[in-house]
Specification:
The protein is built from 13 helices and 19 strands. By secondary structure, it is an alpha/beta fold. The protein folds into two domains: 176 residues, Rossmann fold (3-Layer(aba) Sandwich), CATH 3.40.50; 215 residues, Rossmann fold, CATH 3.40.50. The protein has an eight-stranded mixed β-sheet, with helices on both faces. The protein has a five-stranded parallel β-sheet with strand order 2-1-3-4-5, with helices on both faces. Strand 6 and strand 7 form a beta hairpin. It is elongated. The model has no long low-confidence stretch (mean pLDDT 91).
Length: 406
């Protein structure tokens, strides 16, 4: 788009034979309109000359966390703040392990740990190394965090073996990187309000009425929205998850506390994503002290909690996009469609919590996206919750663009 600056791509090159392709990858990215800076590991220099990378990128190559000519800048932080997207290509098995486990023992891995935006990793290694359980676990960890993995191609590799391990076609790598760089700014200037986790409704100071929600889905949405440049405010119930980088957050206990926070911030939000599992009912009264065990039955009177999603829809301003979630048990698509119509949300994500790999506390989700039309239902295969979040935000962005063009 005219007037926009070029996408900024940070390329990390590691020590595999496929590193010889890095200058061509840089040339292709520059030709596509990107500004590229390159970080190389010490082992990469055995396969590619830093001078070649400097010439095709038009920038000095970054080689160490501690350059001889020390300045006030902190190299790994400066590079992480500069980039719109970070691609590691080729990524060796060793580098995959470091990126997945948070090891930061050189400039590349330190910059990766400091980078809050979208990452792309294109592995290249011996087929047996690619198939090793440790590598598979590392890839799964990165994917769960929203990292785009460009899987290696099959064929003859440098060591003489045949199988999956060759660096993916550079055209494909360039396509994924440019998409990631564009995505990193796609929600810039927007405010996204997200709810996550359960609520707890006290019976007494010890016991409560609640549910099994872990908050993982809502936290994934918050992290993905922040990675796209949005200002994100997260209202979450009691969970054991770290706050996503760069996200403002407040912890609540009850549905009424969540209602107060959501409605109080709704006016400044462009998007509301209600991923929290809000308790439908609460005890009519909460005892001031712990109720003693009497060894006999007792009745607990429950009263309805506020319907935060419906209230938000009623209070919405023009142009806002509101997304609901529905955790169902059986026939999630039909129940989700009914709930979307009843609540008036633009979109609703439904899943069956009794299905393996799609319930509370899992890292994956098999979901149905309902809306924006009454008969629009799209089934999404089981994937990581971060990938669900990315797909959902793609649809949200389409609705925002549609409302602006109306």
């Amino acid at each position: 788009m005219s007037g926009e600056r070029a996408p900024r791509v940070l390329l990390g090159v590691t020590g595999g034979i496929a590193a010889y392709k890095a200058p061509e990858l840089v040339r292709m990215l520059v030709k596509a309109g990107a500004e590229v800076r390159v970080v190389v590991t010490g082992r990469a220099e055995a396969f590619v000359a830093p001078q070649a990378l400097a010439v095709v990128s038009g920038h000095p190559v970054h080689r160490t966390e501690f350059p001889r000519e020390a300045g006030p800048e902190i190299p790994h932080v400066e590079l992480a703040e500069w980039a719109d997207a970070f691609v590691v290509a080729p990524a060796t098995g060793n580098t995959l392990a470091k990126l997945a486990r948070g090891i930061a023992d050189d400039l590349l891995s330190s910059a990766w740990l400091a980078f809050p935006g979208p990452g792309v990793v294109a592995p290249a290694m011996n087929p047996r190394m690619w198939d090793h359980p440790a590598t598979r676990e590392n890839v799964a960890l990165l994917e769960a965090r929203g990292v785009e993995i460009v899987p290696p191609g099959e064929g003859f590799v440098a060591c003489g073996d045949t199988g999956p391990g060759r660096l993916a076609d550079l055209d494909l790598v360039v396509e994924r990187v440019l998409l990631a760089a564009r995505r990193s700014r796609s929600l810039a200037g927007r405010t996204v309000l997200v709810t996550a986790g359960p609520t707890r409704e006290p019976i007494d100071p010890v016991r409560f009425v609640g549910n099994r929600s872990s908050g993982k889905m809502g936290f994934a949405v918050a992290a993905a929205a922040r990675a796209r440049g949005a200002r994100v405010f997260l209202v979450h119930g009691p969970v054991c998850l770290p706050r996503p980088f760069g996200v403002e957050a407040v912890r609540v206990e009850t549905a009424r506390e969540m209602e107060r926070e959501v409605l109080g911030r709704l006016g400044e939000a462009d998007v509301l994503v209600m991923a929290a599992a809000v308790a439908d009912h609460r005890p009519a009264t909460a005892a001031a002290g712990k109720l003693p065990r009497k060894g006999e039955r007792f009745a607990l009177e429950l009263v309805p909690n506020p319907d935060i999603l419906a209230e938000a829809v009623a209070a919405r301003r023009p142009g806002q996009v509101i997304v609901g979630f529905a955790a169902e048990t059986g026939d999630a698509a039909r129940k989700g469609a009914e709930k979307r119509r009843r609540k008036g949300a633009d979109l609703l994500v439904a899943n069956d919590v009794t299905e393996p790999g799609s319930g509370f506390g899992t890292d994956t989700n098999h979901a149905w996206l309902v809306g924006p039309g009454d008969d629009e239902v799209e089934e999404w295969p089981r994937m990581s919750k971060r990938r669900v979040a990315e797909r959902l935000l793609d649809r949200v962005e389409a609705l925002l663009r549609r409302s602006e063009g109306a």
